[in-house]
Amino acid sequence: MIDLNLPLGDVAINLGIKAQYSIVTAFQNSRRLDAHFLSGLLVQHSSGLFVLAAPSELVPTHVSAEVIDTLLAVACRDFDYVVVDAGSRLDMQHKLLFDESATVYLVTQVGIPELRNSHRLIAQLSAAGGPNSKS
After folding, report:
1. Which of 26, 19, 125, 29 has the alpha carbon at shortest distance from 72?
2. Which of 8, 69, 89, 135 yields a CA-CA distance of 20 to 30 A from 107?
3. pLDDT tens digit string along 107-132?
4. DSSP E strands: which ranges in the chain?
């Protein structure tokens, strides 16, 4: 699982794990990003899930689409399934997150603004010929 919900990702805290490294470490060392390097950044949950956590502190992070592509490509080579928590800051310029996806699960709260935004996102993904969407 890759917590790409920057800067406020909470996968690690929700799973009760403490990560020594974060996704920022991967971004800052993108030229070294291979299977061996990535495996050193991951923390394993008691369930067996491997997590590349968001930073525990607020760290300003700028990341290019190419670096995200590299990270996802390396992860997809090593794991049968790669789950990405993209959070709520989904810029559609980075549709590359969805290019290789088999399925996108949209998790939302039940409120008028959230449902409106969910509908807009589903419509945009569908219009762009995105992956199978399940909400």
Report:
1. 26
2. 69
3. 788 889 888 888 887 887 777 665 55
4. 2-3, 43-44, 50-51, 84-85, 103-105, 132-134
CA distance 128 to 120: 12
Q: How far apart are CA 64 and CA 32, in angstroms?
A: 16
Containing H/E element for 76? helix 65-78
110: Cα within 13 Å, side-chain hemisphere: 0
pLDDT in tens, 26-74: 999 999 999 999 999 999 999 999 999 999 888 777 788 888 888 988 9
pLDDT in tens, 92-103: 445 556 666 667
Angstrom distances, CA of residue 40 to CA of 12, 32, 69, 73: 16, 12, 19, 16
Beta-carbon contacts of residue 77 (< 8 Å; ≥ 6 apart): 35
